[in-house]
Specification:
This protein is mostly helical and 494 residues long. It has 19 helices and five strands. The longest helix has 47 residues. This is Integral membrane protein.
Length: 494
């Protein structure tokens, strides 16, 4: 006899089989392909391929390029992004080419992720879900960038969709490959996020003893995480040591309420650490509060339609993958919640279609008008924030390029070493190695820097209001923008 959790899952599954996908759920894939093309073109038009590489992008890209020294690779990072960009970055230093490559790849990935949900929801719901996720300024901004979070999002969307398709038709083994591929992609990019995102799936397969699903899910997670685990032993002294170091760099994982920090970051801040900035205008953050309300409405609609599981599972996965970024770290970045947004998009889209189709009589035009106005306002806010974010980042990255030109004129040319304030990005743009004697990117010592200065040009950068390190105080000082650059005497000058 089945009891407890098993009885609940059996009841849900039987109810969903009785109300299984019919012909209306099996629309073509052309609308999804059109959406992916529009998403790709929007990235190229709005984010623009001329946007230079950002700090984190530099760390990931420099690991595989032959044109720049590799930047310090800290414990929380994974090599997935580096391998993703390797087909272009390994032979070309063109940022524009890399942006185009990533935009095309991200559009294709969104298309495949949404296709994994075919048969579970009508095509119109999937197109709306994809359009909602793709129209977020966060998605458009990070789609063509060498960053991991978008790829965790599409991996989660693929894994959950294929998992539910296999539950609906256990005789079909094809979706299990999608489960494994989605889990591997997540773990390849960010192993810890992959675990959080799949906790509800693991609970379901263990409670129901679905061993084939467990094998696909666990196999995908392990396959994606192997490089990270191997590196933990080869470079950090072991898995426990790497996890501890990653926790230290992230400020120590524990009970830390970061909900307000996430709200502050919605105004276009790539990283909010520390997040002592004003809250954006309420119009900018309104969608963030409407999102969970629509998700709950989507769940209510699903329960009434007797297809609860296919809605509650993405909601549960979205919740678990968001938990550490809302309640366990002391800072925020809007990209951290991309996997949650992608998973919430499905029930949110279902709720929106319910709002425009369910009301009868005179209420239907009113509901449709309100939804249309809300979506138009939402899109306006997202594009406004995106344009401002892109402009700020274009300017800041051009500043790094100008500083690199100034350092070249001062004789700091490859091979060389940059230390101090923003050493990683400025070192990359200068073509130099970067070093730090303290902080999260500590990778050298003062004595090693002085020995390096006997061989190659070395510059130490000090930010506004800062003081130069002791080993560089006697070096000649030069003003470069808002920074002070102290350049070691030329090697061999005595």
């Amino acid at each position: 006899m089945t009891d407890g959790t098993g009885a609940l899952l059996t009841g849900i599954r039987r109810g969903e089989q009785r109300a299984g996908p019919g012909p209306s759920l099996r629309g073509g894939t052309r609308p999804l392909a059109v959406l992916a093309v529009v998403f790709t073109l929007a990235q190229l038009a709005l984010v623009r391929p001329v946007l230079g590489l950002g700090w984190d992008e530099i760390v990931y890209t420099s690991q595989v390029t032959s044109h720049h020294p590799a930047a310090f690779f800290s414990a929380p990072r994974s090599r997935g992004v580096s391998l993703l960009v390797a087909p272009v970055a390994s032979w070309s230093d063109s940022t524009a080419l890399l942006r185009v490559y990533l935009a095309l790849l991200s559009g294709l990935a969104l298309h495949l992720a949404l296709r994994s949900w075919r048969g579970l929801f009508p095509t119109r719901v999937l197109v709306t879900a994809g359009a909602f996720f793709a129209s977020l300024w966060i998605t458009l901004f990070y789609g063509p960038q060498a960053m991991p979070n978008y790829w965790v999002a599409v991996g989660a969307l693929t894994a959950v969709g294929c998992f539910l398709r296999h539950r609906a038709d256990p005789s079909s083994g094809g979706p299990l490959w999608g489960v494994a591929a989605g889990a591997a992609l997540m773990a390849w990019m960010r192993p810890t996020d992959a675990v959080w995102a799949t906790v509800p799936l693991l609970v379901l397969v263990l409670a129901g003893r679905h061993w084939r699903s467990l094998l696909a899910l666990a196999g995908g997670l392990l396959a994606g995480a192997v490089p990270w685990v191997v590196e933990a032993y080869t470079a950090f002294g072991g898995l426990r040591e790497r996890l501890a170091e990653a926790s230290r760099i992230q400020g120590g994982l524990g009970l830390n309420i970061a909900v307000d920090d996430q709200l502050r970051s919605l105004g276009g801040r790539a990283l909010c650490r520390p997040c002592a900035v004003p809250m954006p205008h309420p119009v900018v953050t309104l969608w963030w509060f409407v999102l969970p309300l629509l998700a709950v409405l989507g769940l209510i609609v699903a329960v009434r339609a007797r297809r609860t599981l296919r809605t509650v599972v993405p909601l549960a996965c979205a919740t678990t993958v968001a938990l550490p970024y809302l309640f366990m770290i002391e800072y925020a970045a809007p990209r951290f919640l991309q996997p949650a947004y992608a998973l919430l998009a499905i029930p949110v889209a279902d709720a929106l279609w319910y709002l425009v189709t369910a009301p009868r009589g005179k209420w239907r035009p009113t509901a449709r008008t309100l939804v249309a106005l809300g979506l138009a306002g939402h899109l306006t806010v997202q594009l406004t924030v995106l344009v401002g974010t892109v402009d700020r980042n274009v300017d800041s990255r051009r500043d790094w390029a100008r500083m690199a030109d100034d350092l070249h004129r001062l004789g700091v040319r490859p091979p060389c070493l940059i230390t101090g304030h923003e050493a990683i990005p400025i070192g990359y743009y200068t073509g130099c190695s970067s070093g730090a004697t303290a902080g999260n990117n500590e990778n050298t010592t003062a004595a090693e820097i002085l020995r390096t200065a006997d061989r190659v040009p070395v510059a130490t950068l000090t930010g506004p209001g800062g003081t130069p390190p002791g080993y560089a105080r006697s070096w000649p000082a030069h003003r470069i923008g808002d920074l002070e650059a102290r350049i070691a005497p030329a090697p061999g000058s005595g």
